[in-house]
Known about the structure:
By secondary structure, this protein is α/β, with parallel strands linked by helices. Helix content is 30%, strand content 23%. α2 runs parallel beside α3. The longest helix has 20 residues, at 194-213.
Amino acid sequence: MNINFKELANKYKTPYYVYDFDHITEQYTQLKESFKARKSLVAYAVKANSNLSVVQHLGNLGAGADCVSIGEVKRALKVGIKPYKIIFSGVGKIDDEIREALELNILMINVESEAELHRVEIIAKELNKEARISVRVNPNIDPQTHPYISTGLHENKFGVDIDTAKRMYIKCKNSEHLDAVGIHCHIGSQLTQLEPIKESIKIVADLVRNLKAINMEISFFDIGGGLGIVYDNEILIDTKEYAQSVLENLFGLDITVVCEPGRFLVGNCGTFVTKVLYEKINGSKRFVIVDGAMNDLIRPSLYDAYHKIEVLGKSENPSECNIVGPVCESGDFFAKNRELPATEHNDLIAIYSAGAYGFTMASNYNTRGKVAEIAFENGQDRLIRKREVFEDLIALEEEFIK
């Protein structure tokens, strides 16, 4: 990543996010090439980074979109991704979202419970449509990741067990308004072990074969996403080995592979840049106070997540400190007990691997405007989201002041 963060700070102010679009292209190409032996669709998990320019860039490369709200579906359509490349997932879809998804004629709705399947059928009947669906199967496999981003165990809220899935597929077979075109599993995020993925795919592939035995043909095998990236010193899953483990289990099935990467495509493309306001010593504790905060990047506060952090242009004589922001919460920190050199007012700090679940999870807590987002591609920078100002924050409220 050959980006001059100081130039961008002078041009756009701080804090800001910058995304290396060339890196996104490399990641997408690598994954798509790994599945070249079979029909495949890389459906980008929009929740990871929903900026329109990011979604459009991936769409231009050939990606579809995995969406978890009707708003994300509309984002994908807005930037030109075709409906037949869009999947609507999520454990709690409301009736209006289901109705709109059916009217938009997207590829399929990932259904997560028998109750949800019943609602989809009712709404499809009202619209006189046949709803294309897939069932999210929970294979009860430990993904060996952070518990907050684990989704494949029975203790998680996602998906259904094998027996329930079978009942749901039989219901689809006997329904005039349900068309089971796919099957889906996703065991968690930031996965760095291949074995749990292989186990889950084998379980779900066996279910596909059982369905085929009762004359139910599944067209799409959605393996979810979750491939990890390097935040610290993680050893990653090789994408070719990943693809091979999928394809081995699908031997003999005429089926299109769908994968839903988010973090893998955009996580390491992004850097959050913030400015030092001042340092503070409380007893023996050193604090580096910056202008960015937990409302801008919440992963450290929410998950105690690690991000590599660097004071730009300084590396001498580091000592232990907490990097904290201005938000009025003790949980407002980017790192604790981290070794950093002495800083001065206006020094810049880069927080790396912030392209996924960074801006997209930002809030306006403490009436703080969301920061600017910048794209960097072919050596050029461009603004892809303006920094919010106070007037943006009150726009939906001020007409109601008495």
